[in-house]
Amino acid sequence: MVDVGVLGATGMVGQRFIELLDKHPEFEIKVLTASPRSEGKRYEEAAKWYLQSKMPESVKDIKVVGTDPSKVGDVDILFSALPADIAAKVEPKFAEKYVVASNASAMRMEPDVPLVIPEVNPDFLDLIEVQQKKRGWDGFIVTNPNCTTIALTLTLKPIHDQYTINRVYVATMQAVSGAGYNGVPSMAIIDNIIPYIGGEEEKIETETLHLLGELEEDKVIPAQFGISASCHRVPVLDGHTEAVFIELEEDFEINDIKRIMDEFQGIPQKLELPSAPEKPIIVREDEDRPQPRMDRDESNGMAVTVGRLRRDAAFENSLRYVLVGHNTIRGAAGASILNAELINEIIF
Amino acid sequence: MVDVGVLGATGMVGQRFIELLDKHPEFEIKVLTASPRSEGKRYEEAAKWYLQSKMPESVKDIKVVGTDPSKVGDVDILFSALPADIAAKVEPKFAEKYVVASNASAMRMEPDVPLVIPEVNPDFLDLIEVQQKKRGWDGFIVTNPNCTTIALTLTLKPIHDQYTINRVYVATMQAVSGAGYNGVPSMAIIDNIIPYIGGEEEKIETETLHLLGELEEDKVIPAQFGISASCHRVPVLDGHTEAVFIELEEDFEINDIKRIMDEFQGIPQKLELPSAPEKPIIVREDEDRPQPRMDRDESNGMAVTVGRLRRDAAFENSLRYVLVGHNTIRGAAGASILNAELINEIIF
Amino acid sequence: MVDVGVLGATGMVGQRFIELLDKHPEFEIKVLTASPRSEGKRYEEAAKWYLQSKMPESVKDIKVVGTDPSKVGDVDILFSALPADIAAKVEPKFAEKYVVASNASAMRMEPDVPLVIPEVNPDFLDLIEVQQKKRGWDGFIVTNPNCTTIALTLTLKPIHDQYTINRVYVATMQAVSGAGYNGVPSMAIIDNIIPYIGGEEEKIETETLHLLGELEEDKVIPAQFGISASCHRVPVLDGHTEAVFIELEEDFEINDIKRIMDEFQGIPQKLELPSAPEKPIIVREDEDRPQPRMDRDESNGMAVTVGRLRRDAAFENSLRYVLVGHNTIRGAAGASILNAELINEIIF
Amino acid sequence: MVDVGVLGATGMVGQRFIELLDKHPEFEIKVLTASPRSEGKRYEEAAKWYLQSKMPESVKDIKVVGTDPSKVGDVDILFSALPADIAAKVEPKFAEKYVVASNASAMRMEPDVPLVIPEVNPDFLDLIEVQQKKRGWDGFIVTNPNCTTIALTLTLKPIHDQYTINRVYVATMQAVSGAGYNGVPSMAIIDNIIPYIGGEEEKIETETLHLLGELEEDKVIPAQFGISASCHRVPVLDGHTEAVFIELEEDFEINDIKRIMDEFQGIPQKLELPSAPEKPIIVREDEDRPQPRMDRDESNGMAVTVGRLRRDAAFENSLRYVLVGHNTIRGAAGASILNAELINEIIF
């Protein structure tokens, strides 16, 4: 078993890490960090549990420590659920000694930090060596993309492999959990939509092209197509929905698109990593799916469900679809864990 | 005063007609029709009132009649809130004698039936003569577009007037009232989104180009750009939200787009029609508006609110925005009434 | 294995039966009935699946038959999810030959039909003999109470066993699933409460006293205390919440009440029936629990969670608490199945 | 015109004060206070407007000052929307010089501070003299009860006047706005109920008896019946719903109860105070009313709607009903304003 810790363990994503790591076949939680006011408390006292599953017995008695490299002791991997501003300050310090699998956005676009979806660009992990050499670290940081980007990029990958994408337009309908437990007041969202999520559109547009780009020597050359996003918060608890419009360079058959999505496999599937969904993309034919409440838990929240795949007759070589992905599992904690499983398999 | 009636007066849109016609300065409700099981009842007994305003005193004692031309007596204009299948059968019969201002989709795309938004294409009313001559009717039918189309087209009109639109992509987040009172079960939509609304995408794609087209002699030549829609139902009571992406042929300044939207006026504003909003489009600069709950009632539900107007750097000559329009006022009953007010002013 | 069928298998409660019976250790679904328009179709074609779990593979290919005793063939138990009016007509016909474990309200108050919660009044099953003799049936009908009643009565039972209850007041906050999939339009319940559920208050008041009554020879003498209910529909998907006020005859210690609830066990626990929760009542100490979304799935939806147990200082010998129970599991399908498991154990 | 100010003007209740005072026939807003970080800003910059009405033009340019008696200048009445802890500290300082009409709970139960609902206990204003004498103030503090208490007490008053109340049980279903804009996270309340609101049950139980008590010389003798509350937060934006069970000493006719509620009038109605609803209690006969979304705005949010008035056959001389009142209008800002209108009429 690999000993692991969770940085920022009391928040929404921190709790998802704990839920997913409980009974994990390879990783065992040894340390949990949180802000100073939780320090020294048993986890059960420090955290109000937000998830519908119960708090795992195994973490209740763990004594929470501060988010400080001197306090986490002898573990191998630290999963980071820290807010971006804190992550920017402390993740590099942790990386001097530890492997940091981070869900925070702070380091994602650093040229020597791998931003990885295991099914999409596992080769970017080669940047670890570059990073360690350049920074003189014994550990390293590997990051996963923003929640909305992960689901989108997973569905673009098989298309990008076989066709030339010219344009992507995406309108998101994002669950409130994406903003953290206290992020969206009920007064703001009952019977309402908020058509703005700070920084989200920029993340989608930048990270997606980065992930679908090429690693050349020690840097990433982003993919070259245009991508435009409009992001909206909706009264849904979990599960981001995205309406996607794509223009390709070449003509295509819609059934081919369905087939390549359905058959899509990545290295996690080949290696049978513990958290890997059997199929990263589930293609549904029902006219009214995917729906966030009905499809977010598909494959334990690790698969993206795609539906309404159809030609877009208004434009040449164009198609449309709708996707749903679980934003705090596949889009956050589960993404970091899958990265760590891959690292554990191929690097450790 | 012009004597009017409402066909299909007990449903959601029928009630909006009644609400908006109560105390109308030009129109006075004289007759209300409904299905056979309501026939003969006082309106107050026949209809369960769904709106937050109270049922107007003036209609409570009106005796509901069947939806049959022989029963509506001596009125001038009939507002139709009928379902499409019934409208297809009975609206032509009413039009033999009456002016029918219809919100139903049945006759919208008939070549001799004006599909009109008064601010956008009032000249299409010239088709009335064509229609009457061709069909031998003393009355006529005039229709308004689908709720989602009206809001979108109002915002496209000033752009279309000054620039060449190449592409429009629109993802809608539509309120449950659009499906009628019983249309969306709460089990289907609480904590959920339904990414499908039957026929809606086709209506948006067809009607918008028709409305922005040209009337040449006796037929409409649709506008020629591409438009692609993806429609979604969200847990919002009233007010459709639309995320719009546009590519123009020419370059533009974003402030010019804001200005032409803000300054946009149509014939209803010039004629000061009773239901005309002072400004058909309200442009907001706040980063998190428009929101359906906060903006749907703008200008008594007759204006469309636009926000997040911004360049789309991913593509040349491109812009994005979000709009909110009240689907059962500007998008339905209010649209038919504004059509009737225009007819009353320029034709009667 | 006992071969079973589900009457009314396509609705909300019918689907819960199927979900709970899938992989059941004692029961195996052999037949599914539905209304004529589903007859002859494979279940997968006949039913739109409403639950978040997936439709079990085992039922997809079962050919749906009409709800008619001549069509269900050779099975032992029929679970009834029929609407009350249909149940009234057909359940007696089925009972001529089959064991009917019914969730319908139609036959509950018939003097010779056992209305049973296995933890509360298993001895009422003695009425089966009375019923068979009186009606000349080879089969019989056993019923479970209304969803709200079951949860309430389970929590009253240990109190009733040790104290004399004088008064019970209960205000319910009931989930929309209780009205069936199409029962509550979203227009009715978003940002709203409906303070009326037809027949519900009467059911609670009648059934609870019946369940806590005594079987004397061949009839039930209801318990004698007063019970008053006020029922409300709230925007919650599953899980009924009930605020309970109780006046006892005797003084009590609040900790004794907690203890007797926590320690409460019935025959299903002693017999370790497959669907029996380890504890029928879960007592929570957190000040803000139980909550329907967080607690409805406790013990696979078969336990009732009680919280905020506190004295009621306004009145002598009085206490208050809040409970949550899953209305379509413990309150419907799960209740019938537990009845059948008990019958299977002690009668068959 | 009387010059007034609002203490704590940027929060939810502060905004309701501004909305209700805009265009008020007697009061004119001259000063707005807020926390230090808003000080010096124009109100439009300091406050994010939460209400569906628009921010009144008249306040946009008012420069916000700190919540400090030295800064509010020459006004007569200060409406307080301060949080309880701040109110406890500063309201007494303001009262040295100003009339403070407070919605805060801090001073409500002080023996010399009138806690008043104008329709219920206007005579408690006699305590003003006691207060001024005892504390040596030129101004004074008058308070209104908690939101839930006001609605409940208004409906109890006509019953209390004619009958002897023995018992009151009340279960509340309270809107999220009652906790302030950021008070209830959407993650906490979508598809959920929270069965706990800190301090609320105690306020209902204490304040109601105080309001229905008698002022004897210089102190209030509370009413003597028992009252027990259970409070729950529900996913509703505005409007508290309460299920009420009452036992009287005497027998009654249910129609008499309806009549005395319907005919109930207080001094605000007799004096025709500007904010007084024509009827404080609206009695509805529909079986499914009152509903918060449909009835909260009754009489501009100043009337309480009562429905489902029925005998409670389980207990002697008992009745039940459900009420809805607007928690931030009649239950907060509107309550303070009505108090001030009464003071302005009879004292100034």
TrEMBL record, chains A, B, C, D:
Annotated catalytic residues: 147, 240
Keywords for this protein: Amino-acid biosynthesis, Diaminopimelate biosynthesis, Lysine biosynthesis, Methionine biosynthesis, NADP, Oxidoreductase, Threonine biosynthesis
Entry keyword NADP: yes
Chain residues that bind NADP(+): 10-13, 37-38, 177-178, 327-328
CDD domains assigned: ASADH_C_arch_fung_like, ScASADH_like_N
Function: Catalyzes the NADPH-dependent formation of L-aspartate-semialdehyde (L-ASA) by the reductive dephosphorylation of L-aspartyl-4-phosphate.
Name of the molecule in the record: Aspartate-semialdehyde dehydrogenase
Organism the protein comes from: Methanothermobacter tenebrarum
